[in-house]
């Protein structure tokens, strides 16, 4: 963000012009939240976030709102664009005590927060939260660290947050995402700067989406092997296999012992069933393009031996659940010259990689580098990280996706896309995004078994997009 701002200023757009554009977006959102003419209290801080507040206050007053401006600190100490912004505000500048109002605008701290709010700053944040009126946060809810999604102390609980140019990690990672309320990203005319950190969206992976051609047959669409858990632990692999088919893999094979396959045979029709003791028995088939092991596998030496055999093969590979746990503390064992995607939740992640420092996207990136693999670090704010330094934060998963078996569906989705030749990072991002979209499609009270069906309309819509 700072780089984009510098580039715009160097190219001739004054910083104050950017501030005016930002403030116009704030005023627009405020007008959408408060009835015309209502009382709006704007709380400004000592930096440019406060500057946005002053300009927005002036715009709102022009538009007919009854605006009061409250400053934390002294007006005489404002500098640069913030001082110029304060001069635009012709009305009185009051202290931080808040009057009754229909809307509060939080312009205390933005991306310049550099420590936990204390004293008067902490009191001002607490007073906003206790006020009762909805809060519109300017750029970031004050007290939230935009880089990490964490709050070092007290933070504003906003109803809506309007940020500029692009969402920052703190808007997408929890608990930051919850503190923001509804997130609005306003364009302020900054140039696109090349970045390595993304908000997960169709544009990130859409260009790599595998589309079957007229002459495709089932093997050219990719063949996927899903290793099954044993008898009475087969449901997870079945969810994965059905999802891999739905993702577009031309053919999906469930493999495992005879008792396990007998259970599968009672449930599924489209997947092939192959009795095998070890994956190597099936890897001779050159048509096989991707493998998945882990769901229901069991934490035991047999699983470890199968995982090691699959790691040694030249197919794309997804390791989930128990297949990750059997490699506890050995991320280097995952290095291989073929696409590999890991799908740990926080517990499996810690078991495999140990305790890593930093915000979620940085931990996922460190793990991706250590393992040479694409890492999907799951949670309500899933992060996808690649060994080449790219990372994406996903924010489209509704809370009802937290249900037994949803991870098996995700693993199958990744495997199905890898089987079709999609590159690993893009396949992982697509799978996480579509998983979230499918659970939104299915709605509250979904079960994991609903997801492959709910994916169908979501996937069909992908083909309708221009
Ligand atoms: N970067 C950009 O391209 C643009 C930035 N704009 C605004 O400018 C903001 C960034 O401005 P600044 O860099 O001036 O930073 P902020 O205004 O976010 O905060 C910096 C000020 O707050 C003080 N401060 C930080 N943490 C504190 C704490 N815990 N307790 C007490 N004081 C604390 C600092 O000493 C400094 O005076 C953005 O969030 C955005 O609202 C917009 O005007 C549009 C363009
Ligand atoms: K703010």
What does this structure look like?
This protein is α/β, with parallel strands linked by helices and 466 residues long. The protein folds into 2 domains: 2-194, 3-Layer(aba) Sandwich (Rossmann fold); 202-464, Ribokinase (UDP-N-acetylmuramoyl-L-alanine:D-glutamate ligase, 3-Layer(aba) Sandwich). 39% of the residues lie in helices and 16% in strands. The chain has 18 helices and 17 strands. It has helices at residues 2-10, 15-33, 48-62, 80-88, 119-131, 169-172, 176-180, 202-205, 235-246, 258-265, 280-283, 301-311, 322-325, 346-353, 360-371, 406-419, 424-442, 451-464, and strands at 39-44, 66-71, 93-94, 103-107, 135-138, 160-164, 182-186, 197-199, 223-227, 251-256, 272-275, 288-293, 316-320, 340-343, 374-377, 383-385, 391-393. The strands form 2 sheets. A 10-stranded mixed sheet has the order 8-17-16-15-14-13-12-9-10-11, with helices on both faces. The longest helix is centred in the N-terminal third of the chain and has 19 residues, at 15-33. The chain starts with a helix and ends with a helix. The structure holds ligand NAX and potassium ion. Ligand NAX binds next to helix 1, helix 2 and helix 3. This is Bifunctional NAD(P)H-hydrate repair enzyme. Its EC number is 4.2.1.136, 5.1.99.6. It catalyses: (6R)-NADHX = (6S)-NADHX; (6R)-NADPHX = (6S)-NADPHX; (6S)-NADHX + ADP = AMP + phosphate + NADH + H(+); (6S)-NADPHX + ADP = AMP + phosphate + NADPH + H(+). (6S)-NADPHX binds at residues 48-52, 110-116, 139, 236, 296, 345, 408. K(+) binds at residues 49, 106, 142.
């Amino acid at each position: 963000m700072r780089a984009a701002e510098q580039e715009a200023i160097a190219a001739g757009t004054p910083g104050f012009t950017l501030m005016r554009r930002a403030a116009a977006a704030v005023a627009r959102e405020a007008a959408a939240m408060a009835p015309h003419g209502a009382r709006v209290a704007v709380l400004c801080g000592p930096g440019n976030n406060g500057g946005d507040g002053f300009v927005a206050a002036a715009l709102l007053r022009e538009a007919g709102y009854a605006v009061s401006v409250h400053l934390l600190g002294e007006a005489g100490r404002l500098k640069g664009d913030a001082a110029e912004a304060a001069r635009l505000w012709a009305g009185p500048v009051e202290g931080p005590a808040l009057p009754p109002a229909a809307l509060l605008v939080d312009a205390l701290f933005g991306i310049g927060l550099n420590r936990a709010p204390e004293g008067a700053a902490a009191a001002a944040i607490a007073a906003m939260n206790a006020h009762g009126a909805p809060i519109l946060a300017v750029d970031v809810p004050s007290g939230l660290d935009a880089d990490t999604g964490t709050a070092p102390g007290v933070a504003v609980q906003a109803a809506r947050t309007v940020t500029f140019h692009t969402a920052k990690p703190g808007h997408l990672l929890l608990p930051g995402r919850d503190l923001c309320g509804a997130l609005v990203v306003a364009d302020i005319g900054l140039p696109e700067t090349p970045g390595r950190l993304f908000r997960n969206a169709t544009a990130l992976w859409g260009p790599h989406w595998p589309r079957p051609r007229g002459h495709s047959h089932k093997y050219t669409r990719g063949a996927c092997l899903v290793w099954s858990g044993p008898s009475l632990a087969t449901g997870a692999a079945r969810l994965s296999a059905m999802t891999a088919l739905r993702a577009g893999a031309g053919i999906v094979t469930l493999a495992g012992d005879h008792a396990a396959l007998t259970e599968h045979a009672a449930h599924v029709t489209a997947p092939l069933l192959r009795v095998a003791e070890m994956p190597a028995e099936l890897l001779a088939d050159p048509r096989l393009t991707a493998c998945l092991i882990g769901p229901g596998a069991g934490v035991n030496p047999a699983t470890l031996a199968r995982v090691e055999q699959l790691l040694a093969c030249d197919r794309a590979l997804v390791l989930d659940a128990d297949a990750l746990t059997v490699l506890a503390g050995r991320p280097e064992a995952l290095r291989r010259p073929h696409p590999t995607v890991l799908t740990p939740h926080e517990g499996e992640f810690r078991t495999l990689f140990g305790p890593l420092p930093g915000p979620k996207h940085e931990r996922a990136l460190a793990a991706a580098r250590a393992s040479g693999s694409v890492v999907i670090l799951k949670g309500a704010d899933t992060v996808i990280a690649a060994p080449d330094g790219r990372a994406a934060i996903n924010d489209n998963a509704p809370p009802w996706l937290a249900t037994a078996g949803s991870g098996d569906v995700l693993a199958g989705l990744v495997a199905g896309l890898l089987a079709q030749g999609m590159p690993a990072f893009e396949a992982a991002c697509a799978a996480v995004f579509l998983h979230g979209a499918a659970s939104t499609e299915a709605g509250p009270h979904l079960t994991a078994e609903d997801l492959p069906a709910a994916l169908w309309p979501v996937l069909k819509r992908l083909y309708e997009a221009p």
